[in-house]
Write a structure and sequence with these properties.
The protein is α/β, with parallel strands linked by helices and about 625 residues long. The chain has two domains: about 5-65 and about 75-315 and about 395-485, 3-Layer(aba) Sandwich (Rossmann fold); about 510-630, GMP Synthetase, Chain A, domain 3, CATH 3.30.300.30. The chain contains 19 helices and 31 strands. It has a seven-stranded mixed beta sheet, sandwiched between helices. A hairpin with a 5-residue loop joins strand 25 and strand 26 (about 495-500). Helix 6 (about 150-160) packs across helix 7 (about 180-190). About 55% of the residues are buried. The chain binds coenzyme A and adenosine monophosphate (AMP). Coenzyme A binds near residues 145, 509 and 577. Its EC number is 6.2.1.17.
Length: about 625
Amino acid sequence: MGNGAYRAAYEQSLSDPDGFWGEAATAIDWITVPPRVLDSDRPPFYRWFTGGTLNTCFNALDRHVAAGRGDQPALHYESPVTNTSETITYAALLDRVAHFAGALASLGVAKGDRVVIYMPMVPEAVVAMLACARLGAVHSVVFGGFAAAELAVRIEDAKPTVVVAASCGVEPTRVVEYKPLLDAALDRSSHKPESVIVLQRPQARAAVGERDTDWEELDWDELVADAEPADCVEVAATDPLYILYTSGTTGRPKGIVRDNGGHAVALRWSMGNVYGIGPGDTWFTASDVGWVVGHSYIVYAPLLSGATSVLYEGKPVGTPDAGAFWRVVAKYGVKAMFTAPTAYRAIKRDDPDGELMRTHDLTSLQTVFLAGERLDPDTYEWATQRLGVPVVDNWWQTETGWPIAANLRGLEPMPIKPGSPSVPTPGFDVRILGDRGQELATGEEGAICIRLPLPPGTLTTLWGDDDRYVSGYLSAFDGYYLTGDGGRVDEDGYLYVMGRTDDVLNVAGHRLSTGSIEAALAGHPAVAECAVIGVHDELKGQVPRALVVVKSGVDGAADGEQIRSELLRRVRDEVGAIASLQRVDIVTALPKTRSGKILRRTMREIADGQTPNVPGTIEDASVLETLTPVLRGPA
Ligand code: COA
Ligand code: AMP
């Protein structure tokens, strides 16, 4: 099997990282070629390409235009929710980015300043990201499905000079006005940006400049009309390119910091070697720029590679039907596509026989990549049989920025085993560890860890919080990064990822924190305590369920209905509709250990019909007995 290219690359990446990544770095245009590759001067804070300088936007746009790709499409914007499509060439995208960068610069945005971007899947979101990169400013994109509380904590932490927002997002059944959410977030945040730029969309224009605010509100079009184009600013390879907040178990999100140099090198390498996409190819990632999959594989990797990227503002189903993806593939001649398994489960539900696939010419499509949550074998089989192309699972996280494990279609396609994302990607020294940090044997399930150093393109720290980076990821086992996922490796070296070992939720491929949903519930005056658990869902993989204890004096029986509906509303308003909370049970007590830790995992196991692991330290086992029929029973 295979030509040995994978094995050779993998071994070299670990035994000779300088040679391996030094070679990969030649695919990037540097201003100062890095004198060093791996910098181990300050473990566990490893750095890549120290001393090198570059500009990421130059690598994504200018150099392609200079090399003659100016007329090639960079983006195909396809928006069934607004009935719009638009193709933007590399030359046109460069022009828009340079002007918007000029506009940001005129507002005082300079190297190192943060810019929060709160926008749906519109080309201007990509323009804003690349404009920040052009100036050496640090963008932090917040997913449009997050509401005021989530947006506020991100603004508070990133302390942006400017916030760039759209007036609205367009969901299939409603227009979501962003501006009121942004205003509410800015009211809550003690940090106020100097300016807010609003992109007006015709579906719902926002009132700009009419509020009495601490910041200046500006209209995108007016600002850009007056702006001079800005040049690329030289940054260090180790300077931050972006912060992307992701959910931990607590309500406080973690600001994943990505650098410029390692990121450009790793993503360029992955596009060819993992996904088999090169210059001139058309690639379609159906995700959102607010998630890491969107950052890496809608924006940066395809553009760094001179490919054409489809920017899709719509859903897999309902916009207008389950043939939406196939229509895009046929229209643009897409060579490979990437999305989350949930999207395929939704298509399978609406079009089980794949009839809509047959009404489109899918001959261009060579591979389908799926990530973001576990790819269940049923969905894998369904997609493989219906499409007749390899369906490739790949496993990674916001923290790593690109796949930890994959079947490397460009480097060396390997046999696919359903249920496994295949093998560790070069650069990731994956180990399965037991409770005491001992390495487990083949087939044994344990904590999936990565021996340090992590490869280029992975997180360098948490924004403003080196200590939390070390305590959260590097302290469980000395010398290893803890992924938070459990799993095992088989006799062929294939990895099986079994799911999170902590309380992080994965709802429709979206990572959410139990803590932030609990914080929204706990803010209700009737709530004494609450717990949120992620239970199995056929479509979304997981959905949250809430268990709430009301304060004494509150009549949970009489007022239950009203409290429940107020709680559901609170979660939608604070966290966002994507939390997908539909069920709240009012209970008399929550099961805890003697030290007061709520047994979420045990409750989840009961709700999912598994045999629960009940810790010996449980405070009162009868609480769990009383709760079992509620957890197992119908809503
Ligand atoms: N802005 C505002 N609201 C949003 C939103 C956004 N960007 N994205 C989702 N929402 C809302 C939805 O409108 C929905 O609201 P509702 O409860 O009023 O109907 C709610 O959040 C839940 O959304 P979602 O989880 O997307 O469920 P759905 O039932 O609307 O759609 C799928 C189900 C499977 C079609 C959808 O989840 C999907 O496309 N999944 C693919 C996942 C994906 O791309 N993940 C990215 C990681 S790779
Ligand atoms: P995020 O940071 O939002 O990308 O979520 C990362 C988490 O999603 C991982 O830690 C896993 O729990 C889960 N995940 C992502 N991709 C996969 C996959 N291919 N198989 C199993 N779980 C996955």
